[in-house]
Amino acid sequence: MDGPKSDKPWWWTGLKFECLGCGRCCRGEPGAIWFTEEEERMLAARIASNLEEFRRRYVTGRYGRPSIVEKANGECRLLDGATGRCTVYGLRPLQCRLFPFWPSLLASPRAWMEESRRCPGMNQGKEHSGEEIAALL
Fold first, then answer.
1. Cα of 135 vs its chain's centroid, Å
2. Which among 65, 71, 82, 95 has most CB atoms closer than 10 A?
3. Which domain holds residue 126?
4. pLDDT tier at 96, thresholds 50, 70, 90
5. Are 112 and 122 in contact (CB under 8 A)?
6. pLDDT band with cut points at 50, 70 and 90 for residue 72
């Protein structure tokens, strides 16, 4: 006889993550780095002379939405390749700030573990409660 099933997601008991600043999440296979209109305005004010210049130099389209351009090697255009650090860390888009607590990585323990092979901060450091993770989602 099986025990009662929990209506909570598998990660509800908590997950460990602490960013080590390695920049691996900003490199690799092509993807999308989406941002909101407000994030775009703030980024443009910080790294370009105006919104049009920002769009010309830093924005492309991915899956029907604007996305930060990636370099030919797959790195985010906003990543300093020498230091492995984001050049706009304090203004990085919400998508970046939420990593690794993305729905795709929380979909299953397997998805989380696969990504943790790439990200040394996953399963290390601070314990994030299920309530905290749910609030991020």
1. 16
2. 95
3. 99-137
4. very high
5. yes
6. confident
E strands present in the chain: 15-17, 59-62, 65-68, 79-80, 85-86, 122-128
Q: What is the largest CA-CA distance in the chain?
A: 67
Does residue 77 sit in the same domain as residue 90? yes
Domain check: are 54 and 90 in the same one? yes
Q: Are residues 33 and 88 in the same domain?
A: yes
CB 121 within 8 A of CB 84: no
Query: For residues 26 and 79, what is the distance between their CA atoms, to the nearest angstrom?
Result: 7
HSE, side-chain direction, 13 A CA sphere, residue 90 = 3
DSSP summary character for residue 48: S
Residue 110 in tokens: 């397997």
Number of domains in the chain: 2
Residue 100, preceding peptide bond in cis (omega within 30° of 0): yes
